[in-house]
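This protein record is not my work; I was only asked to verify it. Where you disagree with what is written, explain briefly why. This is what I was given:
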Amino acid sequence: MEELQRRLHEEWAEWQNSHPEGFIATPKEPSENGRIYWECRIPGPPNTSWVTRLFLVHLTFPRDYPTSPPQCE
């Protein structure tokens, strides 16, 4: 589990330098059941009525990440 957390921290640090403008990702403390997740906010698409909104998404990372992809909730 610590190896996964370390890897995700490194990926997050790298992402901070190169992410698309307006996108936000915040790693959260592991949940009570040990799930590792990030809280993300994705901006609405340009030229739509949603352009000023941020949409909340949770990414939950499986223990065998990156072999298995994160789940999006």
